[in-house]
Amino acid sequence: MTLSERFISLEFEQLDEASMRRESQAFFELMARRRSVRSFSDREIPQTVLENALKAAGTSPSGANMQPWHFVVVQNAAVKKRIREAAEIEERKLYENRANSEWLQALAPLGTDANKPYLEHAPALIAIFLKKFSVDESGVKHKNYYTAESVGIATGILTTALHKSGLSTLAHTPSPMRFLREILERPADERPFMLLVCGYPSDDAKVPDIKRHALEEISTFV
């Protein structure tokens, strides 16, 4: 197969300028309502919604199209309990020893501590793993490239897809996270990247009164 035969026509819909402005504004307004939530209902998530969000994440660009990610959806109560217990061990070490005063001061407005009950209460935890290597159909191992960048983009798309579907999320990154690989029995060449807590917010859910940076603070046009 020649190089040209490996390419297909792009499926692309060009919008008129008015539609572009309308769509971009609507998307911004949708995402402006996204907040990290720490109080979840135990209401079950439709499986199709989770699957579609994961498929959306799988469309993410990646270095050399190696797609260096793997998502483990944890819904089993016993496994969620094990993850919470292991995560809280690391969190206690963080708050008691690892974090300096500046770090703790930065966390203070968020009202967080070492207790993570949402790891059990939320209906789903999505453990995101970064794959250092991929194995092709012939069983040959290949190095993956730009793995952190690729998995980071995929995680962003996953978070956005879940928000678009009417769910709340929380990015949880206990450090170290080796316990995730052990509990979920993932191979040694996969590195835990993030634990995304997912579900419906509880009826009494509250979030910190914080603001996002203005456009001029986060961007420069040259």
Keywords:
222 residues; alpha+beta; NADH Oxidase; four-stranded antiparallel beta sheet; two-stranded antiparallel sheet; 6 strands
How many strands, which pairing sense, and closed or not: the largest β-sheet?
4 strands, antiparallel
N-to-C order of helices and strands = HHEHHHEEEHEHEH
Radius of gyration equals 20 Å
CATH architecture: 3-Layer(aba) Sandwich
State the CATH class.
Answer: Alpha Beta
CA distance, first residue to last residue: 42 Å
Number of helices: 8
Mean pLDDT: 95
Shape verdict: globular
Extended strand count: 6
Could you please describe the fold and organization of this structure?
The protein is of the alpha+beta class and 222 residues long. The protein has a single domain, classed as NADH Oxidase (3-Layer(aba) Sandwich), CATH 3.40.109. 40% of the residues lie in helices and 16% in strands. It is built from eight helices and six strands; from the N terminus they run ααβαααβββαβαβα. The strands form two sheets. A four-stranded antiparallel sheet has the order 1-2-6-5. A two-stranded antiparallel sheet has the order 3-4. The protein starts with 16 loop residues before the first helix and ends with a helix. The model has no long low-confidence stretch (mean pLDDT 95).
